[in-house]
Amino acid sequence: FDYLTLTRNCFFIGRALDYYVCLEGALKLKEISYIQAEGFAGGELKHGTIALIEEGTPVVALATQEDVNWNIRGNVKEVLARGANPCIISMKGLNTEDDRFVLPKVHELLTPLISVVPLQLLAYYAALHRDCDVDKPRNLAKSVTVE
Prior knowledge:
This protein is of the alpha/beta class. It has helices at about 15-35, 70-80, 110-130; strands spanning about 10-15, 35-40, 60-65, 85-90, 100-105. A 5-stranded parallel β-sheet has the order 2-1-3-4-5, sandwiched between helices.
């Protein structure tokens, strides 16, 4: 996923609990690497979001929920057809051969706790490769000081 060092945009897609993890992953990526990143619900992909996909656009897809696994994989096929460069993070037992990372199987309600970790590492290494100071992101404070 080295091409994150050269990109200006990255999209995260997920369904059910994975959608919320995608929002967090996108936030971390933009906070420390300064890559414009957004998290989207896979079910909303065709309602405008897909228009943003261009050749080589990085798309991180989470597939950790059994009941929507094939739906998110359908979304990946849609972005692939438009030239995206997908990275699928899945859960053991739901994985296919094209998945980039396979997480250990845990209870479905616990998946956000482990699926957020690779997204944080993705942001961390993207920032390092872009020579960003991960300990002192620009314009961010460790706590909210104004209301």
